[in-house]
Amino acid sequence: MVVGVDGSVVAVRALDEAAAEAVRLGTDLEIVFAVTDIDEAGPTLKSAVERVRERHPGLPVSIVPVVGDAAEALLRRGRVAALTVVGSRGLPGFAGMVLGSVSLRLAARTLSPLLVVRGDQVSRPDGPGPGPGGEVLLGIESDNDTDAAAYAFAEAARRGSPLRVLHAWTYRHLAPVGLAPVPTRRVQDDIDRRSQNETAVPERVVTSLRDQYPEVPVRTRAVRSGAAHALLEATGNAAVIVVAAHRRRGRLGPQLGPVTTALLHHARCPVILVPMGPE
Fold it and tell me: How far, in whole angstroms, is CA 223 from its chain's centroid?
């Protein structure tokens, strides 16, 4: 388990969540601080270790001060980690894009699961979120999100929490110019067929996992809605949301999709991204 710190309040919240996750996973915790001068790292790392040991006395903790870029350091250290944890200020507009650049760059490039903790989420002794017993929310885009589904089931089992699976879909019908967008019979039949297929997506994804995790209560739902809107609304009742990190190839490298970006900026609970290859 790897967590990045920088002495900010946001990083402290990420540290708390990372320590709680390390305890649940039964792994050690590595605290990384990227600086321009190695002598600057001591006080912040010392404070971080003291905080973790006070809250989780038996958790093995190590520190890694590095000189250089924080995102690059966390990518290197997290390559073989069970989970990388980082904080994000989650501010709106251009400021949020700049201040959240480390978490966004990690999300676009990480090869292992990444947990992003927003700065405006309320902290609790064992990590951010609505409290022990809060549900794990799994956002599903398609049948291909099996890795994210497996991670969500395991996370729910570790937390002793119920799992809610949510799939959102839309149907775009373009009416001829000058006519009201009322679907014809043929279009309505197509919508009905699409609805039947989309409604079945969550169950298809979780069927085999139900047998592997019989102790996890599962609710599935498909809604006809924009994915970002539906998932953001659902995060209000979640301890954490798990989604596949859908990425596409851009001119400057892998880029996040709009739903993932919206969750990183506006989710009301921590976000776990499970990597997929560029699409």
Answer: 21
